[in-house]
Design goal:
333 residues; alpha+beta; OB fold (Dihydrolipoamide Acetyltransferase, E2P); 3 domains; 8-stranded antiparallel β-sheet; 18% helix; globular
């Protein structure tokens, strides 16, 4: 049985407009707007993605930091947000023609071949974890009925932190992870603003990139309703300047849900203002669950002052639009 129909938009949901399909980013949105990124846009040439008489093309072939920042299509939707002190991709709610909720997948017309494989994976995960099926969902092209049986992956959603922990344990036990070849990792060094040593470590931790019966699939954690604590406007951010630091990860604050946050200790400032830096925040989904306690990291990003209802502090943000030559290295783990 599926859960009751919801109306609150969450990370990984999709929106359809006259221009194409957009993926919702995060859980905090300004009034009358939804922070989202264009994923598939209508085009006047033939592609692998066809629906209701229209061809669509992917906005990005990959999601490296520079790819996102330099995309003319994404930049078209940028609006400056005073609360976050940056430009965010977003659309007005009046432009939304249809909402696709990740946990309402049974309501949509889904690719039968891929859906069959999804059900097979779902049965394994539910049997191994004893989790009911309503804690699972679908995102990506399969959710919006734009998938291609040959080229599309299966993007599975799991709701809730504890449930994600259970799925992670099963995936590691089943040895379902996909580990790319060395030359593939080498090709991604520039894309993800890192180095070979760091990417090797990260890929060894990417339990959520998997393969089943020749089909790639991913696990995408999304918050349950009662895990969404923050409302728009409760936290204000002030960008200060570029900064470069070496630090040790003290504690994992948020490793599953975007954006990812880690508390830091032993912070050494190599360049930039000398402030007491408490956290690292990562704004790129590639780095989900990529760091762990006691990792020594070398980061260039932007120094920010965070003003929340409980406290004020400084963090370093990586994966941001403001720093063109940013990087994140794991020096020791």
């Amino acid at each position: 049985m599926l859960r009751l129909k919801r109306f609150l938009l969450k990370d990984k949901d999709f929106l359809e407009t006259d221009e194409g399909f957009f993926q919702v980013i995060g859980y905090v949105h300004p009034k009358d707007y939804i922070v989202c990124i264009p994923r598939y846009i209508k085009v006047n040439y033939g592609t692998y993605w066809f629906k209701s008489g229209f061809y669509y093309d992917r906005v990005l072939k990959r999601y490296g930091i520079n790819d996102i920042i330099s995309s003319d299509i994404i930049n078209k939707y940028l609006i400056f947000d005073n609360n976050f002190d940056t430009y965010l991709p977003m659309i007005n709610i009046n432009k939304i023609k249809k909402r696709y909720y990740t946990d309402d997948w049974a309501s949509y017309s889904i690719n039968k071949d891929l859906f069959k494989r999804f059900i097979e994976i779902l049965e394994i995960l539910t049997n191994k974890t004893s989790l009911p099926s309503y804690f699972f969902g679908i995102t990506g092209s399969l959710l919006i009925s734009l998938s291609n049986s040959i080229y599309s992956d299966i993007d599975i959603v799991i709701f809730g932190r504890r449930n994600t922990d259970k799925i992670k344990e099963v995936v590691l036990e089943e040895n379902a992870m996909v580990k790319p070849l060395l030359f593939e990792i080498e090709n991604e060094v520039a894309i993800y603003k890192s180095n070979l040593q760091t990417l090797k470590v990260i890929y060894n931790r990417k339990w959520y990139k998997c393969k089943f019966k020749g089909r790639y699939f991913s696990i995408n954690p999304v918050k349950l309703d009662d895990e969404i604590k923050e409302k728009y406007g409760e936290t204000k951010i002030k960008n200060i300047s570029e900064i470069e630091i070496i630090a040790t990860v003290k504690e994992i604050i948020e490793n599953y849900f975007y954006p990812f946050r880690y508390s830091l200790k032993n912070v050494e400032i190599l360049a930039g203002p000398f402030e007491k830096i408490e956290e690292l925040t990562i704004y790129n989904s590639f780095y989900m669950d990529s760091l762990t306690t006691d990792d020594i990291i070398h980061v260039k990003g932007i120094l920010r002052k965070i003003i929340s209802k409980d406290k004020e502090y400084f963090d370093v943000a990586f994966g941001v639009r403001e720093v063109k030559d940013q990087f994140l290295y794991i020096k020791s783990n």
